[in-house]
Structure formats: C-alpha cells, structure tokens
C-alpha cells in the first residue's frame, strides 16, 4: 500500500494543477480485456487508449504533463491518500483523507455478467466515509500530439465528446455539479458526506453507436465486475505460501490479455523510460513471442487453462500466417515502421515512439520460447491438432537450419552477434522438439536431424561460450560481458550443472546492485535493474537445490516491492531509490514473479 500527500499549492497554478509528474509506482491499472487505464494515487487517470490498448491515447498526461489529456477526481485542498485493489480483483479502492473528512474512490473498467462489454465503461464511485469531502472533477481531452481537435456535440438525447475516431459520453449522478463544459474540457464538483455515494463515468467507443446507460446501472456494474474478477481468481489452482502475490500478478497478466484475439501484450503503455531523461523509451503494446510464450507457461502452471489455450492458439496461427517473427500486433498483423511522436515524454524522456524496431529483427530465442510453450501445453495433458503440429515441425526445421547465424539476441540489440543465450534457446527448441516427436505430438520425419543439431549446439556453446577467466558463460564468445538472461538456462535444463552454478553466482555477483540485477554489463548508467532478471536468478538458485537461500532472497525482494505501488510492476526499478522505470504493467516482471514463487514453493514446472 502506497501513501501520498499532496502539498499545499497556489490555487492559481498552471494546468494540470499538480507540481510535477507522479512517480510511476504511484499508478495502478484498470482493465477490461481490451483497454488499460493508469490511475494515480492523486485520483488522476493519466493514460487510457480507447477502445484498445494499442489505440491512440485519449488520455496521455503521463507523456505530456502540461498539455496531455487526463481525468481527475481529486479532493480540494491538502489531503493524504492510500489505496489497494479489492482482494482477488482488479477493482481499485483509494481512500482520501482531508481536514474535513474521509472518502473512498472505487474504480473499474467495467464488464458485464456475460463478460466484456461492447463499449469501454470507466466507472468511478465516490463513497463518503466520515465528515464531508469535496472533489474537483476535470476531464481534459488529449489532442494526440496536436493531430486532432476534440469537440462536444449535443443532440436530443445526449452531449457527446469526440476525440478523433473516439465518441464518448460523460455520465454522472445527481450530486455532481458541472461548472464548465467546453470542447477541450469538462469541469465539475462533487461532494459526499458520510454514507453518501456519487458516480462519475465515461462510456466510449470508436466510430460506433453509443449506448446511453443510467448512472445507477453503471454503478451497479462495478460490483458485477468485482465478482467476475473474484470468480476468475477462484479458478486459479496455485495454493502455495505466495498465493496472494501470485494472484495479484495473475490479475495483472490478465489485464494484458487482449480478449478480442487472445494476444498478450508485453505491457499496456508506450515510451515510459528505462532511465529518466534517456532514449530507451519504447512502445510495448504489441505481442512478443517471448512474452506471450512465458505468459502462457505461467498461466498453465497456475491452472488458467482457458487463457493459456487462447493465447497458444493465437500464437500458432501467427506462426502459420507470418512465420516466426519477434512480435506481432494485437490483431495478429505485422508491425509497421517505428515512428517518433512530438511529445515531451515522461519527465522529459524523449523520444516518444509508436511501433517497435524489434519487429524487423530476428531472434533465435523465439524458437525456444515456442517449443517450451508447446512442451508445457502437452505436459498438462492437452492435445495438439495436426495443423498445429505441422506448423511446429516447420519451425523446428527452420531452427535447425539457421542456428549458426547471428541474431539480435533476447535484448533486441542493434548489433547482430552470436549471443550465447540465443544458441541455448535454439538448443532448447530442438530438445523440446525431439521430446514432442518421441511422444507422438509432432511429426517425427526430421526427428533425428533435430537431435543431431541439438547436440551440436550444446557442444558449440561449451566450446565457445565458456570463459575460464570469468568462470561463467559469457554474453558472446570471446567476450567478458555477462548476460543475466543466462539464468534461464537452468530452467531450460541445459546440460552442465557445475557451469550453470558458477554462471549463476557470477551473474548474481557482477550484475547485482542491492537486491536487484542489471540485464548485462554496460547498461548501468542508462537504465535501471530489470525485475525479471532478479526473479530468474532466484529461481535458478531454487532449481539448483538452494531453495532456502532462494526463499530468503525472494522474500527480501517481495518486501521491497510491497512498499511500492498497488501490486502493479514496471519493467525496471532504480536499485537505490526503488523508483519504477519502464512500461507497465510489465508482463515479464509479473510472469517471472509467478514462476519464481511457484518454484520456490516446490510446485512442478
């Protein structure tokens, strides 16, 4: 639980009415299976793409503090606030305390009893707890870097707002007083006393008719949404000592599952920096094979079979349609070119980007990711259809043919090379392909070729990638840099326990900073520590038999992260301040947490 205190401000302060950008860890996420909104601890929603995660943002103050769009419900004057998700739910509750009283803000991107609504419904309920609290409401429309001009339109039924292709409607209960209504902003005031209750909500869609729901129906749907989340969590089978943390991360991953297609987004945001003021600001609102595969495995491990099956089916179809690419759009297409957007960026971190350059890269790691997913799928007693099996066999052939070629590596580097982790991933792919062929799950026509290539890769890695001086597998043959992703080789079952143990200890020692770890040597000055890497190293320790040590380390990391945010993790963390860095919610961080918690608890892989 995070607490926030708003300092006294000059009432004439320039829009947006707060002294500086909020820390990333002060944001929580709301989602409905299609879009995700980030809401700050001060009651401001500063990021929301409508109607989809990868749509242009309607609210984007997180990337443009002075001119971006936002939707605030904030108490007047000085206040303190604390918040948490309802147990087993993505419905968020924030309690505000002022000199005159206390009130609770309950928020959700609503769903119905039959699942996702055919429109976006962002509901915000204010409940009076003690005394009286007056909230200021502001809905400021973003202009998508001055490429659109929002406006209001009134007809006999309603006043709607229009922002590019988005049509929306502000709905509110009788206690909300609208003071200003213009093309660029709607401003109002709402007060609640103890026992009172008011509602403000946005209904929105894209180039489509819009249903005008009553505030009472929208308000009731918040509780329907909560029950839907609780029912989903009740089906999660994980019962270990870290169940609460696993459930919270599973709920975060569920927000990233794009329900119209089954794709899994790497994160819900764009261009949040890996280092403040730096240039590592990327668009993660796409489906990476790596992230999707790891998420599928995490879902399988905790018993979320429907989500795992949907995402796996989506992945197989993309492989059949486009081949083994690094990433795809959430709709299943191929990414276009990356472009820069003329926005100042979070705390001045430019450039702001749309698209991702990784789309044009090749990474051998995708082969291992695909086959590990397939292996875990059938290990759970599930069945591959003939079409999927033939697609996988073709991918195995491609891996056997190309593993000797340089690639961009797991970290999507601009310099192609013979990255050790890429070779191990190719080994992993062919090892799993052989196992699947032996089990009758994929055609065995080229089984022997896959086996020979698997063995050649292992011999090549041991001959070229081990450094006696470093006492570790190094990032590239002949180099001295270490790569934290090599901790995954333990989970992959790569041969050679002694070398893996020494590598893991070297990674921990030389890439560690406090409780956390950098991705590889050379990034210490321009990005934070990568949360997934820390979890991978801890999981590796547990898999190598050091479970007590791993549990202690995991508990320390979780205790540190519990002081930040509401359970939503970013990509990275500043090891000194624990400030979050990078896009969020970050799928890799949450799925790595789930896998590590399960391994430390001794759950089967």
Automatic annotation (TrEMBL):
Segments forming domain GH15-like: 240-540
GO biological process: carbohydrate metabolic process
PANTHER family for the chain: GLUCAN 1,4-ALPHA-GLUCOSIDASE, TREHALASE
UniProt-listed Gene3D superfamilies: 1.50.10.10
Organism this protein belongs to: Aureimonas flava
InterPro entries assigned: 6-hairpin_glycosidase_sf (IPR008928), 6hp_glycosidase-like_sf (IPR012341), GH15-like (IPR011613), Trehalase-like_N (IPR045582)
Classification via Pfam families: Glyco_hydro_15, TREH_N
Keyword Hydrolase appears in the UniProt entry: yes
Domain Trehalase-like N-terminal per the UniProt entry, residue ranges: 20-97
Keywords: Hydrolase
Identification of the protein by name: Glycoside hydrolase family 15 protein
Lipid metabolism recorded as keyword: no
Molecular function as annotated in GO: hydrolase activity, hydrolyzing O-glycosyl compounds
């Amino acid at each position: 639980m995070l607490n926030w205190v708003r300092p006294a401000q000059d009432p004439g302060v320039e829009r947006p009415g707060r002294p500086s950008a909020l820390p990333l860890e002060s944001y929580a996420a709301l989602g409905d299976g299609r879009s995700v909104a980030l809401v700050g601890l001060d009651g401001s929603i500063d990021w929301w793409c409508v109607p989809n995660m990868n749509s242009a943002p309607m609210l984007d103050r997180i990337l443009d503090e002075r001119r971006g769009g936002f939707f605030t419900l904030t108490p007047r004057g000085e206040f303190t606030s604390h918040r948490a998700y309802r147990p087993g739910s993505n419905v968020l509750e924030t309690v505000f305390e002022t000199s005159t009283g206390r009130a609770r803000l309950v928020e959700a991107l609503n769903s119905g009893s039959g699942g996702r609504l055919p429109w976006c419904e962002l509901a915000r309920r204010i409940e009076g707890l003690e005394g009286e609290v007056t909230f200021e409401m502001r809905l400021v429309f973003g202009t998508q870097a001055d490429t659109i001009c929002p406006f209001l339109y009134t007809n006999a039924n309603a006043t709607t707002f229009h922002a590019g292709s988005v049509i929306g409607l502000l709905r509110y209960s009788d206690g909300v007083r609208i003071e200003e209504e213009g093309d660029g902003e709607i401003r109002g005031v709402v007060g609640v006393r103890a026992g009172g209750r008011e509602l403000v909500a946005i209904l929105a869609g894209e180039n489509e008719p819009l249903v005008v729901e009553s505030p009472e129906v929208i308000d009731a749907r918040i509780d329907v949404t909560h029950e839907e989340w609780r029912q989903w969590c009740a089906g999660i089978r994980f019962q270990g000592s870290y169940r609460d943390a696993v459930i919270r991360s599973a709920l975060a991953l569920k927000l990233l599952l794009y329900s119209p297609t089954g794709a899994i987004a790497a994160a819900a945001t764009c261009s949040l920096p890996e280092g403040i003021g730096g240039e590592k600001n990327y668009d993660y609102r796409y489906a990476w094979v790596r992230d999707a595969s790891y998420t599928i495995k995490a879902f399988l491990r905790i018993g979320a079979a429907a989500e795992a099956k949907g995402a796996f089916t989506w992945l197989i179809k993309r492989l059949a349609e486009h081949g083994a690419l690094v990433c795809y759009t959430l709709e299943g297409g191929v990414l276009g070119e990356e472009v820069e957007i003329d926005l100042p960026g979070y705390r001045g971190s430019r450039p702001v980007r749309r698209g991702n350059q990784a789309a044009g890269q090749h990474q051998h790691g995708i082969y291992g990711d695909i086959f590990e997913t397939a292996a875990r799928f059938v290990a759970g007693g599930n069945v591959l259809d003939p079409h999927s099996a033939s697609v996988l066999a073709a991918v195995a052939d491609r891996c056997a043919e190309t593993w000797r070629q340089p690639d961009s590596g797991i970290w999507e580097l601009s310099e192609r090379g013979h990255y050790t982790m890429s070779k191990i991933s190719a080994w992993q792919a062919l090892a799993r392909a052989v196992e699947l062929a032996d089990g009758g799950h994929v055609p065995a026509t080229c089984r022997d070729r896959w086996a020979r290539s698997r063995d050649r890769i292992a011999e090549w890695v041991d001959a070229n990638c081990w450094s006696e001086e470093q006492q570790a597998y190094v990032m590239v043959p002949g180099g001295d840099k270490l790569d934290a992703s090599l901790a995954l080789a333990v989970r992959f079952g790569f041969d050679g326990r002694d070398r893996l143990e020494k590598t893991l200890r070297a990674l921990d020692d030389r890439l560690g900073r406090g409780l956390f770890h950098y991705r590889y040597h050379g990034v210490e000055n321009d990005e934070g520590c990568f949360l997934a890497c820390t979890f991978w190293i801890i999981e590796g320790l547990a898999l190598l038999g050091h479970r007590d040590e791993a549990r202690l380390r995991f508990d320390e990391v979780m205790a540190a992260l519990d002081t930040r945010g509401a359970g939503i993790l970013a990509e990275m963390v500043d090891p000194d301040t624990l400030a979050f860095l990078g896009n969020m919610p970050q799928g890799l961080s949450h799925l790595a947490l789930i896998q590590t918690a399960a391994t430390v608890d001794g759950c089967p892989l």
